[in-house]
Fold this protein.
Amino acid sequence: MIIVMLGAPGAGKGTQAEMIAAKYQIPHISTGDIFRYNIKNNTDLGKEAKKYMDEGKLVPDELTVRLLLDRVAKDDCRNGYVLDGFPRTIPQAEVLTSELEKNGAKVDYAIDIEVPDENIIRRMSGRRACVNCGATYHIVYAAPKVEGICDKCGSKLVLRDDDKPETVKKRLDVYHEQTQPLIDYYKKAGVLKSVDGTKDLHDVFADIVTILED
Ligand code: AMP
């Protein structure tokens, strides 16, 4: 089962992708996480990606596509995977479609998590990420057990540079311009499913499970 999560930054793609991955025992692949891992480890890829990410821009397609194709070629992806944050442009989606076609595969579900921009801006200012392992929380909707401390590794939680309000506005502009067209792309492919992302995260997950098990 190959699943693509769609939706604006902050719509809850990452949280839902993680829950899907746990339930169906498939890898959760987040290009944003892979970039952040590389930034933390100061790799050449990380240095290149950081220039774009800090400004709320997309990392160039060529770099992102190479990274993603390497990841999905790994053994743990043979039974499927859930993509979170990829594709983000039509050219990325086209490459994914054609690479999958070579193996007789396709995206089975593109799940669009719908959340209005006003909600997104409110949500993102409450988001916190672990400086060490990258786990994400929300001070209202998904609070850590101890304020400011990661449940998973005990490190400090911070507001990511790309979650700061001015960057969020820029990311939303980029989303509407470059990523929203993917909704039409997957609608035409007959695999688009939409869920109301303003609901409680467990209700959103229940809606997604209903779609996947229909
Ligand atoms: P995310 O954690 O998915 O919100 O991604 C954080 C940032 O990483 C984005 O704002 C982009 O700068 C970059 N990024 C992640 N995925 C992609 C992608 N598929 N294409 C281009 N840039 C990406």
Notes: The first strand starts at residue 2 and ends at 6.
